[in-house]
Amino acid sequence: SVVIQECYVQNTAREYAKLYAAEAEPLEGFGEVPEIIQIFLIHRPANNIPYATVEEELVGEFVKYSVKDGKEVNFLRRDSEAGQKCCTFQHWVYEKTNGNLLVTDLQGVGMKLTDVGIATLAKGYKGFKGNCSFSFIEQFRALHQCNEYCEMLGLKSLRTTHQKQRKATSTKSKNLPNSSTIKKMVPKKSKEPRDFLSSEH
């Protein structure tokens, strides 16, 4: 059933998030690591919808750190710490699974995430039907821009490692000139998190 698959997706992503945390937390300066909350499957034999899911209620502002079409995986969200760490988590899982699996739809309140998705390169990889199209993996590979957390974990840049990527290095920041230059000039402390979250309402 869809509900069972949903549980499997979220709890598998949660296991990856735990492994990610175990690697990232000891690193100096990494700080808090995003956590995917647990989702429980309950069976209600007397009910006309026999399976349901139960999870902790997240209180606060719900933010999508990566969206389904991939266009914003790294665009509006990358200025927030949670957003950057989510992008790094996606990169880390991608590298850990040799590019076969990507955790998508990272969303939640602060560092607590839920309703995630999984995209796989091949149908049936690790038992996943892949509730997201593998084109998300291609988009992620093309759009992901490594940040300081990727560097801390020693992740390899996806731009240089992939053969399909254009050979020319000059085009690297062409499509996002503003974001990449602004980021370097603005000291972190002066950023108001409200600015880029207000559009979520």
UniProtKB/TrEMBL annotation:
MF GO annotations: ATP binding; protein serine/threonine kinase activity
Signal peptide positions (record): none
Domain Alpha-type protein kinase: 1-158
Location in or out of the cell: Basolateral cell membrane
GO annotations of cellular component type: basolateral plasma membrane
Listed Polar residues bias regions: 170-182
Keyword line: Cell membrane, Disulfide bond, Immunoglobulin domain, Kinase, Membrane, Repeat, Serine/threonine-protein kinase, Transferase
Main localization category: membrane
EC number(s) on file: 2.7.11.1
Cross-referenced InterPro entries: a-kinase_dom (IPR004166), Kinase-like_dom_sf (IPR011009)
Comp. bias intervals (Basic and acidic residues): 189-201
UniProt region (Disordered), positions on chain: 161-201
Catalytic activity: L-seryl-[protein] + ATP = O-phospho-L-seryl-[protein] + ADP + H(+); L-threonyl-[protein] + ATP = O-phospho-L-threonyl-[protein] + ADP + H(+)
PANTHER family attached to this UniProt entry: ALPHA-PROTEIN KINASE 2 (PTHR47091:SF2), ALPHA-PROTEIN KINASE 2-RELATED (PTHR47091)
Record family assignment: Belongs to the protein kinase superfamily. Alpha-type protein kinase family. ALPK subfamily.
Summary of the function given for this chain in its UniProt record: Protein kinase that recognizes phosphorylation sites in which the surrounding peptides have an alpha-helical conformation. Regulates cardiac development and cardiomyocyte differentiation by negatively regulating Wnt/beta-catenin signaling.
Name under which the protein is recorded: Alpha-protein kinase 2
